[in-house]
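Structure ticket #2291
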Amino acid sequence: MSLPEMIELSQVEFVTIDTIGPPGQRTFYLQAAQEELLITLIIEKEQAAAISIAINGVLEQLGEAEGEPKATSQDLIHPLEPLFRVGQLGLGYDKDRDMMVLVAKELIREAGEVREATKVHIWANRAQMAALARKATAVVTSGRPTCPLCDEIIDPDEEHVCPRGNGRKRLYETG
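Resolution: structure written out below.
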């Protein structure tokens, strides 16, 4: 399938981040819709966390918009048909429109491929972006817990041997 170089959602009706799958095996999705156009992209957990941090940083600098209603983030719309996996994300703000833009650039993995990566521009108001940041944070933190001492992920199916808790870490099983 040949993708266009640019897809512009100039005022989304909704934008969300959510996952499918059990903790440790989740796939993260960024989804936005404007009129009849629904865009679904695959992102990484770290990208979801970075989106939340970046949006909150911009919103903190801008301050609260007066009279702006709180927005809520929706669940993913099924069936999921991802357009591409995101390689780069960016965030911007247009002062004249008082809107934020999330720019997602396609990850091209095939060696020797010479086409331009597709970019998606997702324009949303501050309330929508604040809701997206809240949802991204909730989704990221709902996965497997991390050890409070060493910050490593605790797999419920395996014993966690914390290097900070007992001074050593089991690197491999001896039989």
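Closing remark: The chain has a mean pLDDT of 86.
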